Fold each of these.
Amino acid sequence: GNSVTQMEGPVTLSEEAFLTINCTYTATGYPSLFWYVQYPGEGLQLLLKATKADDKGSNKGFEATYRKETTSFHLEKGSVQVSDSAVYFCALRPSGGYQKVTFGIGTKLQVIP
Amino acid sequence: NAGVTQTPKFQVLKTGQSMTLQCAQDMNHEYMSWYRQDPGMGLRLIHYSVGAGITDQGEVPNGYNVSRSTTEDFPLRLLSAAPSQTSVYFCASSYSGDRPNTEAFFGQGTRLTVV
């Protein structure tokens, strides 16, 4: 079956540090890949997505590149802010008709001033 | 657009009580789903629906019922609440069918405590 693997954290960084959250996946074919963010007390919201190999998704200074050869979709940001403190979920949606979304466990990020 | 609306935001139940968590979306999405979020467990799929009149079980369906009489609404029913159902519940919706590459939209969540 499909699966998404990411570290649970928490990841603690100082403001302006570089962020990487690793995400690897297992799926057949060419799934769409997503990063969602959940701020405290809120629901998940889409941060960025990529729908085919070598696509780069980007939003709010965050980036992730769809790497088919390594089945990865790592999230990066060059300089984090306190306001980036949240839980980040990697997810995949298989191609072909309707397929259920598979989520990773979520990585908690804490940015300290 | 309101997006996905969940009610209530908070609820405390006694063991054995029943209740319905409401979910409505105004985006004409075919697909709707319910998740529960627990510490260290991520999001787990409870039930989902690919259209009005069609529902199916997810990973953790026991103790929950759903129905989908309209495209807009997808209520989740707890028939006899148990402490193990204490969790945060999220409803989500998205397009399906020939548009597989679209993201899910989530409600704000319902924090349920069963005592």
Note: Chain B is about 0% helix and 50% strand.
Amino acid sequence: AQKVTQAQTEISVVEKEDVTLDCVYETRDTTYYLFWYKQPPSGELVFLIRRNSFDEQNEISGRYSWNFQKSTSSFNFTITASQVVDSAVYFCALSEANMFSGGYNKLIFGAGTRLAVHP
Amino acid sequence: DGGITQSPKYLFRKEGQNVTLSCEQNLNHDAMYWYRQDPGQGLRLIYYSQIVNDFQKGDIAEGYSVSREKKESFPLTVTSAQKNPTAFYLCASSIFGTSGGVNEQFFGPGTRLTVL
């Protein structure tokens, strides 16, 4: 069965600190996709990144970076030099690829990690 | 600007009443989805639709109904059969992935439903 675990319920940091949000997933499929979304206080989920299971290269986008390790089934997210605007709930999600489903598969979400960045 | 709109932002309902949540997208996406979010939890899939006039149940479809008469619209009705409807409801859409690929879903701003 598919499952996503975000063990950190809440994290509190002071501005400019680096912070890592953990994501551990379970799947029996060899082809799958991983996602990170940000949910600010307004409520709308904002897409951050998509990674497929064949691409283990780490990715960096500005202050954001992602570390994908298939050996430990983890897809961790690091914010460098955090800012108050980073305060939000962050969700990790998993979707298995299926050649027969017309490109659709449901997303399995973790419970989310609430990040509070204080001035 | 392209995007997903949901209305209303806040909705109050008396017990025993049906209520319909609106979701419209102008992204020309094929697939649309409805999720429910409860405090401290991740999103759970209620219904999804891949094409017009077709939709499938997600993990928690009981007490909900949907329609997909137009590509742009995917309204959700919360019926009186839904035992605990107070929650935050999010609508999303995506392009079909090809060759088994899965594309990201884009979300609307959500509707917060409270049953009085």
Note: The two ends of chain A are 41 Å apart (CA to CA).
